[in-house]
Amino acid sequence: MTQAQSKAQQPPQKQEHQPGSEAQMTPQPVYDNENYHGANKLLNKVALITGGDSGIGRAVAVFFAKEKADIAIVYLDEHEDAQKTKQLVEQQGRRCVTIAGDIGDEAFCKQAVERTIQEFGQLNILVNNAAEQHPQESIADITSEQLERTFRTNIFAQFYLVKAALPHLKSGSAIINTTSVTAYKGSPKLLDYATTKGAIVAFTRSLSQALIDKGIRVNGVAPGPIWTPLIPASFGPEKTASHGSNAPMERAGQPAEVAPSYVFLASEDSSYISGQILHPNGGEVVNG
Fold it and tell me: Where are the residues of the annotated region Disordered (predicted)?
């Protein structure tokens, strides 16, 4: 038995297309917690969630719906996953619209916000969650095309979406950006990805200061190793099988363990918090 096999958390698996399909994962990520009962914390609010079709984004959509928010989910092309998330939101008695496209394109980001306003008449919460990653053994292997693509999806899109959403966000609105533990620890084989995640931390802190006079709070969440479609879509079967084993809790987290952080930051529970990052990362101590 190899060391990787001894640390296996889930069966070895590999997906060839990013950002990956939740429907193809074994076991399925846990996106809900039956012991979580909503308390109308987001009653009649509207949230736009990028990467909302699967993984952390799906869990956030479900938890927001439990808190009585309506949801617009933006995703690339994982239509089966998106329809599943739509059904889950509607099972909570809330409305959900799905919007497919490339958030690396500023024009599409504007269209996504416009569609949300057309469907719901308002926008109160923006969750910039979608991301992609492409491991490479060396910086020499990162092409200019990969570098630009990773930056466009992970950080340019956050600028585009905030710019498009800002005219519709009123005092009391919230922006929540997904960064990563890699922004604090670094990651030798995810140089471009980790760099974008560091940029998101700086963006969150700076934007919070820029918007505080408008009454708009801006915060972030920096998950550790979470079991999402991005993992089998990024790594080989052996590494995927041991994903999360190096965390202090010695396991990968589940999306349902991350989603409550977003509920907290979206709701009035965090009314005196802006420019901060939460760290659901399995016990990794970072300077955040």
Answer: 1-35
